[in-house]
Amino acid sequence: MIENVPYFCAGILVIIGLVVIVTKKDMIKMVMGLALVEAGVNLLLVATGFISGGVAPIFTNAPSTAMVMPTVQAMTLTNIVIGIATTALLLSFVMVISKKYGTRDVTEMRRLKE
Amino acid sequence: MMDFIMANAPALLIAVPMLGAFALPLVGRLGDTPRNGWILAVTLITAIIAALLAWTVLTGGPVLYTFGAASSSDAIPADSGGIPIRIIFTVDAMSAFMALFAAFVGFITCLYSVASERLSSGKDGYYALMLLLLVGILGMVTTGDLFNFFVFLEINSLAGAALVAYRIDKGVSVEAALKYGFLSTLAGLMVLYAIGLLYGQYDSLNMAVIASRMSYTMLDKVALALLIAGLALKAGAVPLHFWTPDAYSMAPAAVTAFLVVASQAGLYGLFRVLFSVYGLTLNYVTVGWAVIILGVLSMVVGVTMAIPQKDVKRLMAYHAVSQSGYMLLGVGVGLVVLGDAAAMDAFGRTAMEGGIFHIVNHAMYKGLLFLTAGAIFLQTGTRNLNKMGGLGHSMKWTMLFFIIGALAIAGIPPFNGFASKLMIYESVFAFSPVIAVIAMVVSILTLASFVKVFHAIFMGPQQPKYADVIEVPRPMLVAMGALALLTILMGIFPEQIVSTVIAPAANALIDQSAYVATVFGGV
Amino acid sequence: MNMSNLVRSGANIMMPFILVYGFYIVVHGHLTPGGGFQGGAVIATAVVLLMVAYSRADVFASIPKNVLKNSETAGLLLFIGTALLALTAGIAFFGNWLLGAGSLFGTPVAFGINPGDINTGGIIPILNIAVGIEVLGAMGILLLVMLGGMKGDAE
Asked: Topology versus the membrane, per the UniProt entry (chain A) (predicted)?
């Protein structure tokens, strides 16, 4: 049971993130919600590679002991990098919008619909 | 030289536009002309490589490319325990077909941009992002690795969102870009979550390996739902279409034409996951009907939302949603009868061919329509239909291209839209007459809508405020002309195109075992 | 606005250590946890330190944006160039054409568990360095733009 905790945490993080995205009206908070979803996904990825009692996969010629899976860690790192790029891009959009509109509230943004 | 390119075509397909994008800041320093030459050369070379790759695939079967290996065909190293460990590009007929027309549209839109963006600032960034968007699309359609697919999906989304915001325009386009970027990222994370679930069960990221081990457990169903939701969002299918009108109408015209292809890469991902990864293990009747319902909803909602629009690009964007419904419908019918060989031969194959043929047709005529809308916007400064009128006097070529595009989207012979829609009508009628009738009604509504648009833009007396409007520069006309020519050619010779390109692509989707054997069979 | 003398002196003392630590992470990417992205990000935090300690005008004067842009381009070109050179060596794209060649980063890996030799890894350290150069440029520009509150053109 205890080994399933990371998966539950990942699910809970994703749900918290989605709730934040849906309920908050401030765009910066919405981007933060997206970052929470991403953190949840990252946790899921890392958790799938975990082996109890495994050692870090840093060997030049690997002995045959249990290692944690390096692939998922590479995937997680890649996703962190992508996440930074996305968050930076979205936040710079928010910056431009708040400068041009004078608000960060999504409910007050109706210019597209005109 | 030729052998070298042929041997490394899948890698060069990604590497050339990437190199082009990375070197752009240096080339851009030399001035406008070298930059334009560079960008056109890069996209043209990419298109040629894509054509060579497609030719190789169509004549010699699927191509495998293993990254980082001593030999590119060395998919399963001897010491790996029989599973592919490296990133592998698996290019079958479907991938090659998507890559070919994506690279072609990339070239056309860059050619158009050379003229349409000639007065804008920040062109280095613009073209670099165009090339990265091309990289994203080409990578998505050629890769055989799920995580790699996600990375290219994100490149696609980020470049697309940044391009939508390219003209800041009082912040309105940035608002559209934020919406697009936000939702695409969410879609990407859904896809990644699904990839994590699949990897946790099958210990591999390679689509062929996952397909060969697929046991369709509960977790696989969750992953499938996430993949369908994420990729349908990326493809802009109803009810996940709300970003499309904003992003398509606010982006520069060339970008919009290219974003259409970017969405279709999402559609490709959806088909690849459904057919090649899940395949027959899938509860294909239920999932197939779900895809059909998505398609019918997209068709109906898209066209009904399009009719009252006043912004010409927004109207076209809703039509794009509507048209992507036809592709989902055609391929969805094929999915429903996936396990039934008799029904597959009777109408399923034709439906899938129609759906896939419609993808390329849509990219051609919708690209053409968006480019004409961009030309009109460039010369008049408005996208509002009520403020236009009488432009037929001064922009004759644009009017001609608009007519071609509008007739093609409405499915009037002899244009390409008719060819693919006819295939969809015939086969879907055999499957379910009601849906076929809905599809035809949507087509008629599309025609009505475009007649209205045509009348509003081009007909009527010449208005004094547009007295000095002239025809757009030549590169834009050439770009539109090339798309118009293809629209007509593909409408006149549909049988030849279907039998040489589309049918192998449809077979590649249907035949899951061939896809798996490409990786495992060893070349 | 400038912070107090104490903060500025502290920043000056910390600066070289941050840079050295960042480059250490980049160069040892193939042996220890870390690599190009992480090291580049550490180096970019030096920009944050400057932004905290000094006024905006001072920072913009001491870190020209062009230098960062150029390093971004250089890193990307080095990355893709290294990968493309594998093709001319007759192996697949991103193939490790330096591995075991004996020259720079080409020493064969020693057998068994060992602390690792920096001169191994083939093209992996080179790709790490390329990514490090690229990331420090890109993140530096990003931080300058965002913290400076300048007009954010879509990067």
From this structure: Multi-pass membrane protein
